[in-house]
């Protein structure tokens, strides 16, 4: 398939029953530089290969959940790339709803074109266009001093990705006035951050915030600056292998900073382009007057991390001594994820607050962090061995996934949810101001 973008032919490929336009360059930047918008130009662009990922270290503890796909991924120093996923019969004049996805990974892992985030099912079933975004991570994307080393470069990359979508999506059959920004975990955190940046006003009309770690936002300044000053002179000159070693060492510094150290990298508030946390809610309230909000978390978020994060395990044990284990899981899940979601649902002009409780009853990871991922991106070949779905046959995963994809797409299309049509594992409350 060929799309004509002014004088340029953009060539995509048919895969999984949809059209894919993969690895489009939305911005250019050297290491530690602010990104510059990239214009589609030239005679032909071949967009027929999945975009590589930003360089990252492999976290083996996540393999039982996600299958270790990153081990075989391609990597690049220049990850300002996005991919467009289009229903097969779409015409350039169709003006389909557009969903822009920001992946999770604690700001150090993941990529837009990993198969665990393949949106082909929601694209095929719900007749929407989905754009997946890849950007800088870790020391390359989220560590700086706000002067000679700019902070929040990964977030600045995402702004340019949104600018690119707004400028070009209509050439691919998308409606540039009906864009939903959605993300999971650190991607959801990015969605919230993009909501309060003046530069993004008008770039999207709806947001879906999936399990943003609101409880890890406060009191990060000292930790971030200590991480930055650790071997700072090596950041610009080190080769990528050395830099990833530095990133691993820098990440360990967070261990002495309590629960925040479980996600040592992240957006730096009060550094360009973000306001301070003191001004965050005020900015959100103003922006949410014109942006529809769907926000939520999963009922047992923290069970995914109890073994991997020692401090969280100790906190869990401390709470268990006072209340029952399941109640302890609920308390910690709300502290990190659920309470913040409810707080911002109440601040919005209108918001849908959701909670997901999906999973087999005896699966210790039911309703865990990321549990919606195999439902939204349900490729059996990718997810069939994940511990998330232990105790469920694939037919039930597909059945429930289709229901969840419908809710996500209906919100993206219309900004509304018919609560009567939601599945039992999805609890939704509506807030209006």
Automatic annotation (TrEMBL):
One Gene Ontology molecular-function label: hydrolase activity
A Pfam cross-reference name: COesterase
Q: What EC number is given for this enzyme?
A: 3.1.1.-
Keywords from the UniProt entry: Hydrolase
Carboxylesterase type B domain: which residues? 26-309
Xref: InterPro entries: AB_hydrolase_fold (IPR029058), CarbesteraseB (IPR002018), Carboxylesterase_B_AS (IPR019826), Type-B_Carboxylest/Lipase (IPR050309)
Q: Which PANTHER family does the annotation name?
A: CARBOXYLESTERASE
In the record, the note on similarity to other proteins reads: Belongs to the type-B carboxylesterase/lipase family.
- Would you tell me the protein name for this molecule? Carboxylic ester hydrolase
């Amino acid at each position: 398939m060929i799309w004509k973008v002014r004088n340029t032919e953009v060539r995509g490929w048919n895969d999984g029953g949809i059209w894919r336009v993969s690895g489009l360059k939305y911005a250019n930047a050297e290491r530690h530089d602010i990104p510059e918008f990239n214009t589609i130009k030239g005679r032909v662009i071949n967009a027929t290969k999945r975009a590589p990922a930003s360089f990252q270290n492999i976290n083996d503890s996540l393999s039982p959940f996600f299958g270790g796909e990153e081990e075989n991924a391609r990597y690049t120093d220049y990850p300002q790339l996005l991919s467009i996923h289009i229903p097969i019969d779409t015409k350039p004049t169709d003006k389909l709803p557009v969903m822009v996805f920001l992946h999770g990974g604690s700001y150090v892992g993941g990529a837009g074109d990993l198969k665990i985030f393949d949106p082909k099912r929601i694209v095929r079933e719900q007749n929407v266009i989905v754009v997946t975004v890849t950007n800088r991570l870790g020391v390359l994307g989220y560590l700086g001093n706000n002067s000679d080393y700019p902070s929040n470069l990964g977030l600045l990359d995402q702004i340019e990705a949104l600018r690119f979508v707004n400028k070009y999506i209509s050439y691919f059959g998308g409606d540039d006035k009906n864009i939903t920004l959605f993300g999971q975990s650190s991607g959801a955190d990015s969605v919230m951050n993009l909501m309060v940046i003046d530069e993004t006003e008008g770039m999207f009309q709806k947001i879906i915030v999936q399990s943003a770690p609101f409880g890890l936002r406060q009191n990060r300044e000292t930790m971030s600056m200590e991480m930055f000053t650790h071997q700072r002179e090596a950041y610009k000159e080190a080769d990528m292998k050395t830099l990833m070693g530095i990133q691993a060492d820098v990440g360990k510094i967070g261990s002495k900073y309590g629960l925040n150290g479980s996600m040592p990298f992240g957006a730096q508030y009060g550094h360009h382009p973000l306001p301070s946390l003191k001004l965050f809610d005020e900015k959100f309230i103003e922006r949410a007057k014109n942006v529809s909000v769907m926000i939520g978390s999963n009922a047992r978020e923290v069970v995914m991390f109890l073994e991997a994060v020692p401090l969280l395990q100790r906190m869990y044990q401390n709470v268990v001594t006072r209340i029952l284990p399941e109640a302890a899981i609920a308390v910690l899940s709300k502290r990190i994820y659920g309470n913040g979601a409810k707080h911002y649902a109440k601040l919005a002009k209108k918001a849908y607050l959701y909670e997901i409780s999906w999973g087999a009853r005896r699966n210790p990871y039911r309703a865990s962090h990321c549990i919606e991922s195999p439902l939204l991106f349900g490729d059996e070949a990718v997810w069939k061995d994940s511990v998330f779905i232990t105790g469920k046959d694939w037919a039930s995963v597909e059945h429930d996934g289709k229901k969840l994809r419908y809710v996500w797409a209906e919100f993206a299309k219309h900004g509304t949810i018919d609560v009567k049509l939601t599945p039992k594992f999805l609890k939704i409350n509506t807030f209006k101001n």
